[in-house]
Amino acid sequence: MIDGTNLNGTEAKTDDMLQYEYAREALKRGLAYEEELGENPFKFGMIGSTDAHGGLASTEENNWFGKANIVEPSPERWKDVLIKSPVDDSLSISALNLNASGLAAVWARENTREAIWDAFKRREVYATSGTRIRVRVFGGFDFTEDDLYKSNLAEHAYELGVPMGGDLSEAPAGKSPGFLVRALRDPDGANLDRIQVIKGWLDAEGKTQERIYDIAVSGDRTVNNQGRAEEPVGNTVDVDDASYDNSIGSATLGAYWEDPDFDPDRRAFYYVRVIEIPTPTFLAYDRKFYGLKDEMPEDATYVSQERAITSPIWYTP
Length: 317
Known about the structure:
globular; 26% strand; eight-stranded mixed beta sheet; alpha+beta; 4 helices; 13% helix
């Protein structure tokens, strides 16, 4: 949520800064560098981290001990300034700009240092905003929708395709890459809103492009011909009570998706984002626990949607 200023608070955020600050922009720039130089320096996987400096690496919004001891739980922490601007107080980064921290998820073959290291090396990892969503992604040219329902999906998918972090190349004539995606909610958390595929590619003029596709949505919502669900999932959050319920969303979501605009001659990447239904932020929990309804600002962020973001699968002609 730190998005209104540069990191040291000396300058308000401008659009030209964004290309240097987000993973998606780096992934897109990597495609352009590879086209020009023959190598992609930004072929990385996605992980999340707590970035905690107080020795308590908590990641849950209802049990967050902050990024440093100055923002540990207290009735006053919503006023705390994490990074004070030397030029303008409105550019300072405060507790009001924060959410609880992230997690690194790893698909390792066994719980050993060697297996976990190998998973990181092959980029079969994903990031979450702190929730314990489980998500698997496989890409290939020989999958079908029926594969999504196989009891041995992972074993079958490893044989016919590649997992998150992998590479596809030289598409067979007339075929587009297909993706198998399964997601399961945090067992102690919120239901799922939707699964999205984020595609980035290099067009015929050498310019980077991007597009988001909703490939699975909860409830009876539908996806339009532009690949998006226009209706939101809803919101059950009671800010005053710092609570929500799972009467909306789905415990599991899955999808088989083929790229409808695939060009076998253009470099591309695909990664998956899984989004939960709205839930309270740590500010809402603090507000209730310490009885701060009349003290904390009305426009503070009391509701957010936690998520998981997978490593990409790259396509190279």
